[in-house]
Amino acid sequence: MRAIQLTAPGTLEQVEVPTPAPGPGEALLATAAVGACHSDLHILDAPAGAYPTPMTIGHEISGRIVGLGAGVTGWSEGESVAVYGIIGCGRCRACLRGWENQCRTVPIGGIGISRDGGLAEYVVVPADRLLPLGELDPVQAAPLTDAGLTPYHAIGINRDALRPGTCCVVIGIGGLGHMAVQILAVTTAVTIIAVDTSDAALRLAKRMGAHHTVAAGPTAVEQIRELTGPAPDGADVVLDFVCVDATLATARQVVSTGGQLTLVGLGGGSLCLAATVAHPPPVPMETNAIIPFWGTRAELAEVIALAGQGLLRAEVQTFAMAEAVRAYGQLRAGDVHGRAVLVP
Length: 344
What we know:
By secondary structure, the protein is an alpha/beta fold. It has two domains: 2-134 and 314-343, Alpha-Beta Complex (Quinone Oxidoreductase, Chain A, domain 1), CATH 3.90.180.10; 150-290, NAD(P)-binding Rossmann-like Domain (Rossmann fold, 3-Layer(aba) Sandwich). Helix content is 27%, strand content 26%. The protein has helices spanning 38-45, 93-96, 138-157, 177-187, 199-208, 220-228, 245-254, 297-308, 324-333, and strands spanning 2-8, 11-16, 26-36, 55-56, 60-68, 80-83, 122-126, 130-132, 167-171, 191-196, 212-215, 235-240, 255-263, 288-290, 316-320, 339-343. Strands 3, 5, 6, 7, 8, 15 and 16 form a seven-stranded mixed beta sheet that branches. A six-stranded parallel beta sheet has the order 11-10-9-12-13-14, with helices on both faces. Strands 2-1-4 form a three-stranded antiparallel beta sheet, with no helix packed on it. α3 packs across α4 (177-187), α3 (138-157) packs across α8 and α4 (177-187) packs parallel to α5. It starts with a strand and ends with a strand.
């Protein structure tokens, strides 16, 4: 079968590999669609030894069951499914409570991260990672497993602060950010302020339910403050899906006293939280900062339910699997509108 593999650090190739067979407790899927995530670029750019090679990448997966390993019950061949990509230890306190994204035993990993993923004609996954899709379009479903789940989890962490009449600033209207705007619009009654460098992204945010849009730049803080009010007031929640120095600077300057800074992006920027007697704190007093990671299987089921009811829809740009190198190139250049999805 064809697969898109990380064959060496920085090298992504289409190769021919044997079709895998499901072992005990596993399912074999015919891949239907795979979302391309910025996390894949971090895997591609990582130094030797950080990730196994060769490895098939792709962790946002939808597909159809075509084989079941020994001991698998509750599933039938032909069912359309989405894949929850995280694989925790299953034994620590976090995993036992369903928080596999907080596993205390194994390093961050999972399907397409520490074992072969979905960018192939077929993929084997543990059967307990599957969720049913019903009639949901698999191309729509694939991005839900991360681009939908991650912002849903991040918003859930802030649910108590996202009360009617409050303000939420969403920075970065890309694959995750445009989903966050929709989730906020359909599950809260907050005022949504979207921030991005791209006019096209801001137009997308408006279509997805943002009440206000602000172009990132030297006047962004002033424009946001005109909407939220001067300090110590401000945005009750800021969701930064970029997290470079510039976006973090904006985030800390617009969050309210007692607000929530939620740092989702992997841009590598720095946010100083320390204060001294001589200098005021760089963020308002009583402000919380949190770094969420992906989400839980229960939350993914809720995301799929929202999509099944027509309340959540990914803006997708599709590519053939053979175009994977080009798709990731466009993703790196910022030329993907919404979420790139690769289809065998």
